[in-house]
Amino acid sequence: MTVVGNGEDHWLNDEWWDVTAESNSMNEIAKRVYEITYHNIPKNNNYIVKFVANHSYADHWGSATDEFIAESGVEFNSAYFGENIRFNVPYDCADVTLKLDLTNFNYSSKLGAVAKVTVTDTTNNDNPATENISAQSLSRAVEAVDSVQTADLNGLVPNEDYIIATVKSASEKDVLSDDNLLYITQTAADENGCVSLNYLPKEETENSVIVYYGANIKNAEVTIEPIYYNENEQQADYSVSYGGKVLTKDIDYTISIDENVTELGNYSVKITGIGGYCGTKYVTFSVALKAGDVDGDGFVDINDVTALQTYLSKIDNMSYYQKNSADVTKDNVIDINDATMIQRYCAELCMIS
């Protein structure tokens, strides 16, 4: 049994939805009970996982709905061919234990799997997290007037408040420790996104660095247009905005995304602030079947009625995605009413949303 998900920044050993990753193989702690623990996982409100058997999506378990968020330490029913399991890490640093119990799972009914996510706070209070701090080298003209130094920062978010510090090194685990900190202040960028500093560091050093945090990309709004399966490669159309301003890729942020997608399923996106922005934001998008497109060919027509009637006659089965597409009446029941509604749509007598 293997865990897959949006693996970056220590999560899932940096393996991004890789079903073959041996590093994410779970330990069988009892017959048909699997478990794995990850250490030093940073704070984030959008961790995503699924459980796959035999390094293949042919058998996998997730959550019953895409909106489900697992509560730490609480067992929940894990759905066969289910949606992504989401959970939050509210601590600066944590251990995360994932458990899948298939003791009572029945392959005929596809029911009985139980999962649990346990998040344990391992934060060292003597080393506060600095995940929201961006760093840039301090290029400055030092004026030897009473040891006061000057520095200009550009490319910040106009009128945004920042905490700005000068430190000996930006690579220290505790960037703002007393030993590393030379100067700190809070100020706002001007209307052009600039801050000019006149400051007196507590000691002289040749290679000081400015660190700042304030405009966190976690607060950005990310919009991804819906993508419906049509058997062809499609490109994800997205936009990122902050405070009503549309941000520019590779200037305000970088993005890790499968821009060209084909297969049905869920895809994860990582957005990292650069320039005047800091922090990281995770979002997901899906490639799904259009409502009524039961046969998955990208069109809603009489062939979909036939596919649904074949399923209702128990001649053929349908995948999880087909079932979602077939339930056009949105009553969580797939029956003749759905087939009738698709027929009415084909005759242009109703709409399907």
Strand and helix layout:
Elements: E1 2-5, E2 27-30, E3 33-53, E4 56-62, E5 76-77, E6 79-80, E7 85-101, E8 114-121, E9 134-137, E10 149-153, E11 161-167, E12 181-188, E13 195-199, E14 209-213, E15 221-224, E16 227-228, E17 234-235, E18 238-242, E19 245-246, E20 253-256, E21 260-261, E22 265-273, E23 280-288, H1 302-312, H2 320-326, H3 336-346
Parallel strand pairs: 16-23
Antiparallel strand pairs: 1-3, 2-3, 3-4, 3-7, 4-6, 5-8, 7-8, 9-14, 10-13, 11-12, 11-14, 15-18, 17-21, 18-19, 20-22, 22-23
Helix pairs in contact: 1-3
Structural overview:
The chain is mainly beta and 353 residues long. It has 3 domains: 1-123, Immunoglobulins (Immunoglobulin-like), CATH 2.60.40; 134-213; 289-346, Type 1 dockerin domain. It is 8% helix and 39% strand. The protein contains 3 helices and 23 strands. The protein has helices spanning 302-312, 320-326, 336-346; strands at 2-5, 27-30, 33-53, 56-62, 76-77, 79-80, 85-101, 114-121, 134-137, 149-153, 161-167, 181-188, 195-199, 209-213, 221-224, 227-228, 234-235, 238-242, 245-246, 253-256, 260-261, 265-273, 280-288. The strands form 6 sheets. Strands 1, 2, 3, 4, 5, 6, 7 and 8 form an 8-stranded antiparallel sheet that branches. A hairpin with a 2-residue loop joins strand 2 (27-30) and strand 3. The chain is flat and about 85 Å long. Residues 125-146 have low confidence and may be disordered.
